[in-house]
């Protein structure tokens, strides 16, 4: 069994994909816009713009994350979870953390902890919560 995160950016998916490409080296592996769907979406189940992203997937390291614009109402909410990135060293932790923090909010600055030489928590500019940790 495989469990994968699926993020709904409520109209900001394309912007998020570009941000993650720059910030954490994400590689977009699939992208389909609503206008490219082989079947029309059910009524009240799609944004008005066919340019919005119906489905996408992107790779971060060994993990595939899926994403969409959803209903594209402009109010994405990401609550009750964090995505965690494990990196090999402190320099990489600094780079990833600072890139994710650009335009976002630092919830816990990168610091040494009893379980890691560097750990921090940040909400990116889309509101997705991330934890960056150096494997101890």
Automatic annotation (TrEMBL):
It comes from the Bacteria. InterPro entries: Glyas_Bleomycin-R_OHBP_Dase, PhnB-like. It holds the Pfam family 3-dmu-9_3-mt. Gene3D superfamilies: 2,3-Dihydroxybiphenyl 1,2-Dioxygenase, domain 1. Residues 4-133 form the PhnB-like domain. This is VOC family protein.
